[in-house]
């Protein structure tokens, strides 16, 4: 097929080249000396010789997308924050095992390449990669006319990290009496947007409408970027060493299910709702839906973006260090082992996502004021 007929089919290769030129500088800013070849190659090259200093290096990998949050970005034509969401969803899963991210690649599928729009998306990815110490070594933009609408797109990414085998974080490190710390989210992050869009549609609310209680339009409020936890959590794991036992990224499934995944079989924990107050966006959405905050606990993070299970003797110092670094952190519960303390009666979530882990439930009522 000639270039002329390819263009007639709806694929503009020149627009793709223009998009690459617009994003080059942002991508290069994520490259250290270990990245070879620059931007535009068929494959990204990463010098792994630095890994020779590890005793038993294990590679950690993760892949994800942003979900239907992209529909809101498309609706209000704002595309510079979706990249932060993508990096948060992908790279922050790697830090759960204690791994340091090395590099990431991205994939954007769209109905039509608008160079400035694609560049905005990739610049957002690159900015977040810089913040997490991740090299953006490659990516792909695919134009799919006839399959996606002219203004439609979706994004996905994959990342690789590294951790010493004897430094892996996980349920096997958890001990009776460990404290569960909650790290505040910046809002909805990137989960539960199908429910969000359903609630607004049923209420007849447009993304350009003013959300008085949120101090912005609905579209702006809902595009608040996902908070990035990798750098502060790696710092805590390094500073407090063996005191950090397991981490959980609160994404799809909510607080209880994601905490249960990183607790050992036979353990249990109760998360005390009274220790924090969910941000206004969660309350306003729940009110619009005519439902309770509790009914959305399996969908939204409700103000907790990450959970850290840590040694009780270091819990206060860890919480203070994270809070001083800009992430409000507080204690929400304690882990108990059935061999030490029998689990109380009641409904607990037992493991999740195929992991037969611990049991978790939320108890009490949410605080009315700010945490």
Automatic annotation (TrEMBL):
Annotated localization: Cytoplasm
One MF term in the entry's GO annotations: phosphoribosylformylglycinamidine cyclo-ligase activity
UniProt xrefs under InterPro entries: PurM-like_C_dom, PurM-like_C_sf, PurM-like_N, PurM-like_N_sf, PurM_cligase
Pfam families: AIRS, AIRS_C
EC number: 6.3.3.1
Pathways per UniProt: Purine metabolism; IMP biosynthesis via de novo pathway; 5-amino-1-(5-phospho-D-ribosyl)imidazole from N(2)-formyl-N(1)-(5-phospho-D-ribosyl)glycinamide: step 2/2
Catalytic activity: 2-formamido-N(1)-(5-O-phospho-beta-D-ribosyl)acetamidine + ATP = 5-amino-1-(5-phospho-beta-D-ribosyl)imidazole + ADP + phosphate + H(+)
Keyword Ribonucleoprotein among UniProt keywords: no
GO process terms (BP): 'de novo' IMP biosynthetic process; adenine biosynthetic process
GO cellular component, one term: cytosol
Domain PurM-like C-terminal residue range list: 175-335
Key words, A-Z: ATP-binding, Cytoplasm, Ligase, Nucleotide-binding, Purine biosynthesis
Domain spans labelled PurM-like N-terminal: 58-163
Family designation: Belongs to the AIR synthase family.
Protein name as annotated: Phosphoribosylformylglycinamidine cyclo-ligase
Species, as recorded: Microbacterium azadirachtae
Gene name in the database record: purM
């Amino acid at each position: 097929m000639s270039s002329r007929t390819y263009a007639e089919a709806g694929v503009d290769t020149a627009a793709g080249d223009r998009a690459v030129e617009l994003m080059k500088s942002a991508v290069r800013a994520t490259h250290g000396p270990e990245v070879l070849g620059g931007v535009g190659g068929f494959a990204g090259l990463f010098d792994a010789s630095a890994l020779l200093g590890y005793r038993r290096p294990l590679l950690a990998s993760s892949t994800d997308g942003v979900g239907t949050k992209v529909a809101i970005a498309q609706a209000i034509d704002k595309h510079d924050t979706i990249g932060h969401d993508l990096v948060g969803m992908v790279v922050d899963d790697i830090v759960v095992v204690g791994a340091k991210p090395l590099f990431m690649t991205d994939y954007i599928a769209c109905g039509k390449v608008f160079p400035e729009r694609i560049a905005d998306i990739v610049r957002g990815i690159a900015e977040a990669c810089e913040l997490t110490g991740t090299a953006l070594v490659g990516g792909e933009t695919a134009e799919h006319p006839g399959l996606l609408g002219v203004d439609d797109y979706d994004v996905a990414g994959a990342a690789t990290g590294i951790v010493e085998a004897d430094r892996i974080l996980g349920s096997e490190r958890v001990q009776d009496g460990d404290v569960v710390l909650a790290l505040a989210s910046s809002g909805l992050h990137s989960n539960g947007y199908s429910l969000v869009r359903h609630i607004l549609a049923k209420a007849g609310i447009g993304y350009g409408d003013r959300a008085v209680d949120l101090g912005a339009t609905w579209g702006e409020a809902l595009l608040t970027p996902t908070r990035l936890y990798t750098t502060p959590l790696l710092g805590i794991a390094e500073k407090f060493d063996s005191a950090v036992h397991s981490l959980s990224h609160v994404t799809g499934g909510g607080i209880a299910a994601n905490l249960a995944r990183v607790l050992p079989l036979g353990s249990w924990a109760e998360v005390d709702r009274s220790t924090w107050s969910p941000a206004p966006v969660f309350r306003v959405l729940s009110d619009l839906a005519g439902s309770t905050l509790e009914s959305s606990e399996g969908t939204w993070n409700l103000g907790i973006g990450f959970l850290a299970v840590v040694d009780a003797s270091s819990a206060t110092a860890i919480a203070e260090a994270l809070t001083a670094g800009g992430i409000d952190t507080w204690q929400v519960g304690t882990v108990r082992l059935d061999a030490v303390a029998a689990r109380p009666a009641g409904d607990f979530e037992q493991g999740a996502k195929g992991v037969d882990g611990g049991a978790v439930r939320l108890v009490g009522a949410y605080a009315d004021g700010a945490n």
